[in-house]
């Protein structure tokens, strides 16, 4: 994924060059807590779209640890059956805890596959806190996946995922507690002010419910042009915000430097650590570097 | 939490003013997937520290949904027993999906309680993707909580939490699968290059293992001053980066405006949405506004 990082020499120019060629793909974010079966679901969806004759790209965001070096992740093990299919492109991004890295590299990977002409792109990411906002910023549809037995269903609300869902899926729907999860989620959705997302039940490991998910996705894909345009405008605004924020962080990082090569702001950081200066004043000093 | 948002009029000045008074608290981040029992564990730790005679503040970060308005969260229900204890201060932050809101409001809340003289501050947050980096940036110790039966333990690695853990806890340790979870984590820790975090087993709901967690936390608290200073310097640098990034985003947001009040960059965003301009060039235009 390094080549797609938009701040690497040459990469930003490449991304600028291909950007006008994009905008045609149907980009689907798939998010949810660890263990709900996102990869298995995406695998099923890839198979279904391939059966429809559409080429599919998968961008899987693993906020993996430098600790494991990604080696333990078994790089999309379940998707091996698609590896020899030229119509499927699978890319795993290891964000390695880098702040802002997720949205930056995700947006770049989506832009590349979009420009390359993939009509369907899945973006798979662990959803909680920040990630779900990122995925909504970069996609045309958001699928939020949950599963029975992952603690109280109220926990799902905590992570703010319902807010951004176009489809809400109870995966592992053949397991104990599935009925309860569906009932709880139905009750919660009834309380919501906005139009409720479609609520579906799947057992992706055995292929159950995949056809219904595809049908629901196609309904989103067929939204009126005006609605799609409004969403793309929001995405554009958020993407520019993200780039602006990342650039400011990059500039600050350079000004601070590191132990072996302290930058002009290094002494200022020492003051913050010693509490003789507050971090907001230190940020003010940045603009004078 | 609104009053602590560092960009509200007066709030930033207040935060600057109190900042020098801080730096004495022992700030402990507690993070993990939804449903692992973080609140129950923190509740137990609060009780244990109160029994030691220390005042405790809890900053609970709920990335809750505007969808639910936070009303369904049952604001720290399990901690009600501490509500009448003047030595405990509990503050829930609803970040409501605002990008960057977590680190900004968390840092502000920690700064306030630190300056107010709380010797122990717990920061409880859902950990995945971005949040775990945020919590490591704002704390002196990180407790990563997991539980049996939350899918493959390898999923825990995916979210990059082992990298930042000082303590790794298998909570709900009286449930089926706890032995297996401990064995898996022990094996994974053995593979790691860096010094492994302490691995502990708790059943927080019945108080089991709380004393051992306190002992492990106190070991971290007693680290050599040089080690503590290095960590604080890293935190200071990251906090300044976060502030710089947020300010840039705020400036971009103002330049874009909204539907009712378009800013000078509104037309530029339309171009990005229409793919006649790429988002990186749009971000370039920001500096000329």
Helix content of chain A: 40-55%
What pattern of helices and strands is seen along the backbone of chain A?
HEHEEHEHEHEHEHHHH
* Residue runs with pLDDT of under 50 for 5 or more positions of chain A: 64-78, 96-101
- Count of alpha/pi helices of chain A: 10
What structural class do the secondary elements of chain A suggest? Answer: alpha/beta
Any idea what the CATH superfamily of the largest domain in chain A is called? P-loop containing nucleotide triphosphate hydrolases
The level 1 CATH classification of the largest domain in chain A is Alpha Beta
Largest interface (CB within 8 Å) is between: A-B, 96 and 96 residues
Task: Provide a descriptive summary of the structure in words.
Two copies of one chain form a homodimer. Chain A is α/β, with parallel strands linked by helices and 289 residues long. The first copy, chain A, folds into two domains: 2-222, Rossmann fold; 240-286, no CATH class. In chain A, 43% of the residues lie in helices and 15% in strands. Chain A contains ten helices and seven strands. The first copy, chain A, has helices spanning 11-18, 38-51, 101-115, 131-137, 154-158, 178-191, 210-221, 225-256, 266-273, 279-286, and strands at residues 26-32, 56-62, 88-94, 120-126, 141-146, 167-170, 198-201. In chain A, helix 6 links the parallel strand 6 (167-170) and strand 7 (198-201). In chain A, helix 2 (38-51) packs across helix 7 (210-221). The first copy, chain A, starts with 10 loop residues before the first helix and ends with a helix. Residues 64-78 and 96-101 of chain A have low confidence and may be disordered. Chains A and B meet through helix 1, helix 4, helix 5, helix 8 and helix 9 of A and helix 1, helix 4, helix 5, helix 8 and helix 9 of B.
